[in-house]
Write a structure and sequence with these properties.
3 domains; 368 residues; five-stranded mixed beta sheet; alpha/beta; Methylamine_util_MauE; 47% helix; Glutaredoxin; three-stranded antiparallel beta sheet
Length: 368
């Protein structure tokens, strides 16, 4: 039992640290997931939960940092009993969220491991039950974990450093872009190629005759067989990775394929009410400088705001570039920055920039 307890102890601490770091890699994405939960709770339990939407990103950093710190504290066996009880609180909290999502089909992805590992609601709930099982083994066998690796002042120092590092990682990612991009629009990806399936769908047909059920790779010509069901044998490969990338002008005309040809500098403005207006002098300078580029770069603006709202906004910030429209969720997936810059070459993402890291023309030309 001692060996099992040690394995569960290491695994539980490591999972919490890993989960926290993955979320801290993209606190904006975690914040969006929390906003989704708050909207669901507001709809089901009262509008009070909408108050928390304004603090979603801060809460994302604090909750994710807490996971990391508790994981470190557990591995150090620092105040082991108190650490385990705090971990239990988190496990119950996350378990409630994942069960609620699964049972009532409210949030289809809990964001437990960010965009690195996608889990269905029931998979997420099963993961929480597994972690609860690890917790129970460790909690009821603490006698095998008596040795503390950091006592007194040294322990406080370790926990302080862990807290500072975790929060620092999250704050920096919040002010720039994620350290690691796990979304379909990461640098190097070909958007046009990802909008097409890797291979054609292959089907398995289940038919019945005289009480006998049989599966076929090809639909039989024998009409004595009766159709029962059909399923795709290669669902992942036959489904495009990107299914919702669509760009329209103000009249509703589709310009998606046009955007994916040639060299494009895309300025993504997700929401005119939240977009950082202080950066538009630099953005306008970059857009104006594209005319001098030997690479024939076409600057475009893509927004999810309404044409009327954006027209007023563009005059306020003196923005002079063609404007197109896309779904808000798509733009949030493309870049975790508002505004943000995407450099495309024939649909291939060559560069992505947060508004705190606006490149100059020479940098953009170097990418093409």
């Amino acid at each position: 039992m001692k060996l099992i307890t040690h394995i569960c102890w290491v695994l539980l601490g490591a999972v919490f640290i890993f989960s926290g770091l993955i979320k801290l890699n993209d606190p904006v994405g975690m914040g969006l997931k929390l906003e989704e939960y708050f909207e669901v709770f507001a709809e089901d339990f009262g509008s009070f939960f909408l108050v928390f939407k304004g603090f979603a990103r801060t809460m994302a950093i604090l909750l994710s940092s807490l996971e990391v710190v508790l994981g470190v504290a557990l591995l150090l066996r620092w105040h082991l009993r108190k650490t385990l009880l705090t971990l239990l609180g988190l496990l119950v909290f996350f378990g409630f969220l994942t069960f609620y999502s699964a049972a009532f089909n409210k949030v289809t992805d809990c964001g437990c491991f960010g965009d690195f590992i996608k889990l269905t609601p029931w998979q997420s709930f099963s993961k929480d039950l597994f972690l609860l099982g690890l917790w129970a083994v460790v909690f009821f066998n603490q006698r095998y974990l008596r040795r503390v690796f950091a006592k007194g002042t040294l322990g406080v120092m370790y926990i302080t450093v862990a807290s500072a590092v975790a929060i620092g990682i999250g704050v920096r990612a919040l002010g720039h872009l994620p350290y690691f991009d796990f979304l379909p629009y990461k640098v190097g990806n070909d958007i046009g190629a990802l909008m097409k399936p890797k291979e054609q769908a292959r089907y398995k047909y289940v038919l019945e005759r005289n009480g006998q059920t049989q599966e076929f790779d090809q639909y039989p010509t024998d009409t004595t067989w009766k159709y029962k069901s059909m399923e795709v044998q290669n669902p992942e490969a036959s489904r495009p990775i990107i299914t919702d990338f669509a760009i329209f002008d103000g009249d509703g005309k589709d310009h998606t394929q046009e955007i994916l040809k040639g060299n494009k500098l895309l300025l993504i403005v997700q929401n005119t009410n939240k977009s950082d207006r202080d950066r538009y002098n630099l953005l306008n300078a970059l857009i104006n400088s594209t005319g001098k580029s030997p690479n024939k770069i076409t600057p475009l603006v893509i927004t999810s705001s309404s044409p009327a709202d954006f027209d007023a906004f563009r005059h306020d910030v003196n923005l002079a570039a063609p404007v197109y429209y896309a779904d808000a969720t798509v733009l949030k997936s493309i870049i975790r920055s508002d505004p943000g810059i995407i450099v495309l070459q024939n649909g291939v993402v060559k560069g992505k920039y947060h508004y705190h890291d606006i490149p100059d023309q020479e940098t953009v030309d170097h990418l093409l």
